[in-house]
């Protein structure tokens, strides 16, 4: 992990995340709003998320009796040598914003394709720097961070992991595997987890109390 990323913490207050999303919905560019939604819904690595193409979006039929269509991104895997790609399934909110984005940009190659005149002949995605600037300015405008606070697009990935563990049924072990990290300790530090979060391989009891230390 880059040293600059190690200083970036997840947003631990759900209301802060909602305020951030609301100001993006009101004033943010559509592609930045979609990046926010996908980043928070999937926890994808920023570099992978930024480079996604519409052809990376796949569908599959699931279920024997009650058939339903699942939608996912096929993205590179860093740890499964025999499976160079893995599936990142999308929840309804992500599917909705992607559907709207595609309707508004039917000819784009990249999901977050730039409109820069320098990219007219050679399509490419928005830069991480541009995405970071837009997201940070929105976070500052709604008062959840100050201009001096450490911030990066990695905030979305860390917030995804933190809230799935602290408020959901994911253990640190499950999140470690999902984030493709090497140890429980690295994952706990990466997500700045509170004391008492179960590390094991089975989902925790929702009623179990966790010491937040905050």
UniProtKB/TrEMBL annotation:
GO terms for molecular function: DNA binding. Residues 10-204 form the Tyr recombinase domain. Keywords: DNA recombination. InterPro entries: DNA_brk_join_enz, Integrase-like_cat_sf, Integrase_catalytic. One of its GO terms (biological process) is DNA recombination. This is Site-specific integrase.
């Amino acid at each position: 992990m880059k040293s600059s990323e190690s200083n970036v913490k997840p947003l631990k207050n759900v209301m802060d995340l909602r305020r951030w999303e609301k100001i993006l919905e009101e004033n943010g560019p559509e592609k930045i709003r979609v990046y926010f939604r996908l980043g928070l819904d999937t926890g994808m690595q920023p570099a992978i998320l930024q480079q996604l193409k519409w052809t990376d979006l796949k569908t599959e039929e699931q279920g024997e009796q009650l058939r339903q269509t699942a939608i996912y991104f096929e993205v590179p895997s860093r740890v499964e040598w025999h499976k160079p790609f893995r599936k990142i399934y999308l929840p309804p909110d992500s599917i909705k914003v992607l559907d709207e984005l595609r309707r508004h940009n039917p000819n784009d190659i990249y999901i977050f394709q730039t409109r820069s005149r320098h990219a007219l002949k050679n399509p490419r995605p928005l830069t991480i720097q541009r995405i970071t600037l837009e997201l940070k300015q929105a976070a500052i405008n709604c008062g959840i961070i100050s201009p001096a606070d450490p911030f990066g697009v990695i905030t979305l990935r860390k917030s995804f992991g933190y809230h799935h563990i602290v408020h959901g049924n994911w253990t640190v072990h499950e999140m470690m595997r999902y984030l493709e990290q090497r140890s429980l300790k690295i994952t706990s530090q990466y997500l700045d987890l509170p004391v008492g979060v179960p590390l094991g391989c089975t989902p925790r009891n929702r009623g179990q109390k966790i010491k937040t230390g905050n």
